[in-house]
Design goal:
Elements (H helix, E strand, L loop, with lengths): L6 H6 L8 H13 L6 H10 L6 E2 L3 E3 L35 H9 L3 E5 L2 H13 L3 E5 L5 E2 L3 E2 H8 L2 E5 L7 H10 L2 E7 L15 H5 L5 E6 L24 H6 L4 E5 L10 E5 L1 H9 L1 H5 L4 H15 L7 H6 L3 H11 L3 E10 L8 E9 L3 H5 L5 E2 L1 E3 L2 E5 L8 H11 L4
Parallel strand pairs: 1-14, 2-12, 4-7, 4-8, 8-9, 9-10
Antiparallel strand pairs: 3-11, 5-6, 10-11, 12-13, 13-16, 15-16
The chain binds pyridoxal-5'-phosphate.
């Protein structure tokens, strides 16, 4: 009988996978422990597949939570940068002086700061401005937004006291007035419902109606649409944006602060932005949690590039906005050029817990059967959907540079596995 190879020898035989030796040793050990050393390569490949890597998004979901929401390139990786250095004076500077100032400029805010994500932004605002004090929120806005972000839980962690106002379906300005008089409310908060809608017998209060209640109004708009007029889009705002709250207009309507994500409709890296009244932004920045929630230079550099792109009004250089506005005929031509499957009409969606029910007409190719596993095993992996027993690849979210790879992988599907 053949003797099993040594762990070391087996690990060395997998060196072509590119994984570091300790990972190969683990794969070899796992295979030997299972009594089948021929499985070592499979274990190593599984390990490689669990690593973070570029993925082709053929799902048609523009902000796919499992694929990191918005795609946006890193900035100057591997270089020193003046993260906390003022190059004019040579003195210590602030990491909050680059990207945040540009984002404030782009949405018409007096000041802005950046934290780790929008959940952090809300937590920091509440801890810095309303600890041990009442915060009035409409019952219709006590929402859970994917991944366990629950407004009442965040409020509790911040040390602020939730004052619930109105009812689930109807809240009026008079409800807020009573809460402010009776409950020692020092902050009024609006939270965008983001991923759901209440329809039917409903009534809600606008930002403008809450702006002059007395306490400062903070709006968690979530999605990070900077300006409802979309001056960065050559043809203005797309029709499907209708009704989405935007930072500039929410501040103009009287909110003192807005909070939003960096990686939803803003189209950038994971981040949370707090923008508005300079004094309130400063108070957030001075709170001890600001240090714990601050982003690193990689994120701030990427956000700076993004803010400059917005200020240049070059939306077509922002992958999210470019993909969202691609005309149908170009998608059809690319689908035909793939040369595989049937060209079909599809519906893409913004995704990312934004704009529920919004559909963007799109184009895909459909192949009979469920090929998701084979597509996921490609290098780079391709993520597709299965609709009515057909695998559908939506061209809207596929980068044109990836078309050749997609065509090659689809071609290989037709060979028997
Ligand atoms: C998405 C969302 C959040 C959470 O944002 P993260 O950046 O994922 O932390 C908070 N509030 C609203 C209204 C949202 O839409």
């Amino acid at each position: 009988m053949e003797r099993p190879p040594s762990v070391d020898k087996l690990a060395r035989s997998l060196a072509d996978t590119g994984l570091p030796h300790p990972m190969l040793v683990d794969a070899a050990r796992a295979a030997i422990a299972d009594g089948d050393h021929t499985m070592a390569r499979h274990h190593a490949e599984q390990t490689a597949r669990r690593l973070l890597q570029p993925v082709v998004n053929a799902t048609g979901v523009l902000l796919h939570t499992n694929l990191g929401r918005a795609p946006w390139p890193a900035h100057d990786a591997g270089r020193y940068r003046n993260l906390e250095l003022d190059l004019t004076t040579g003195e210590r500077g602030s990491r909050q002086s680059h990207a945040p100032a540009l984002l404030a400029r782009a949405c018409g805010a007096e000041a802005a700061m950046v934290v780790n994500n929008c959940a952090s932004a809300v937590l920091l605002i509440l801890a810095a401005l309303a600890r041990d004090q009442g915060v009035a929120v409409s019952r219709s806005e006590l929402v859970e937004i994917g991944g366990g972000f629950r407004v009442p839980d965040v409020m509790e962690q911040s040390g602020a006291r939730l004052v619930e106002v109105g009812t689930t379906n109807r809240t009026r300005r008079a409800d807020f007035e009573r809460a402010v008089e009776a409950d020692g409310v020092t902050l009024v908060m609006q939270i965008h419902q983001s991923n759901y809608r209440i329809v039917g017998f409903t009534e809600s209060v606008t930002t403008a109606e809450l702006a002059d209640l007395g306490p400062p109004l903070v709006a968690d708009i979530g999605s990070g649409l900077l300006d409802a007029a979309c001056p960065w889009m050559p043809d203005g705002p797309p029709a499907w944006l209708e009704g989405e709250p935007a930072a500039r207009q929410t501040l103009e309507a009287g909110a003192e602060l807005v909070a939003f994500s960096g990686d939803k409709l803003l189209g950038g890296p994971q981040a949370g932005i707090i923008a508005g009244n300079a004094d309130l932004v400063r108070r957030c920045g001075r709170h001890p949690l600001a240090r714990a929630l601050r982003p690193g230079g990689l994120v701030l550099g990427a956000l700076q590039d993004l803010a400059l792109t917005y200020l240049r009004r070059d939306g077509m250089a922002i992958p999210f906005w470019r993909m969202a506005s691609l005309p149908i005929d170009g998608l059809q031509a690319r689908a035909r050029a793939l040369g595989r499957g049937e060209v079909v009409a599809t519906v893409a969606t913004p995704g990312g817990g934004t704009l529920p029910g919004v559909e963007i007409p799109s184009v895909g190719v459909a192949l009979d059967g469920d090929h998701r596993e084979r597509l996921r095993a490609a290098h780079p992996p391709i993520m597709a959907r299965v609709v009515e027993d057909r695998t559908v690849l939506d061209l809207r979210t596929i980068d044109p540079d990836e078309d050749a790879h997609v065509a090659a992988v689809l071609g290989s599907l037709e060979d028997p596995a």
